[in-house]
Amino acid sequence: MPQVEESRRMVCVCNWSIRRTWAGVLLSNIIEMEGVSEPDKYYLKQTSIGTKEKGVYESTIPLADALSRRALIIHSVDGEALPIELGYPLRLYDFGLYG
């Protein structure tokens, strides 16, 4: 899969943002490779495993929206593997949404 590295801002749910260098694969490349012809008919569901206090939660977003915002499947940030709190080993990042 073609790898990309982009310096992009992520906004935390607490409303602060940070610019970091994210590396991974464009979601659009995966969708194209799988032959999805009508992305506006599909949704993405991501399960996040938080701390004991936050627990496990799920989020759902329209696939077409994620593609329009150049969502990435991230495997590293700032030259290092994703830490567990950011979703190690892989995490979908849609930069138009809160992290």
Describe this structure in words.
By secondary structure, this protein is mainly beta. Helices cover 13% and strands 43% of the residues. Strands 1, 2, 5, 6 and 7 form a 5-stranded antiparallel β-sheet that branches. Strands 3-4 form a two-stranded antiparallel ribbon. A hairpin with a 6-residue loop joins strand 3 and strand 4. The longest helix has 7 residues. The radius of gyration is 14 Å and the shape is globular. The mean pLDDT is 88.
Distance between the termini: 24 Å
The secondary-structure class comes to: mainly beta
Helix content: 10-25%
Q: Report the sheet-strand fraction.
A: 35-45%
- Note the overall shape: globular
User: Poorly predicted ranges (pLDDT <50, ≥5 residues)?
Assistant: none
Main attributes of the structure:
single chain; about 100 residues; mainly beta; five-stranded antiparallel β-sheet; two-stranded antiparallel sheet; 2 helices; 7 strands; about 45% strand; globular
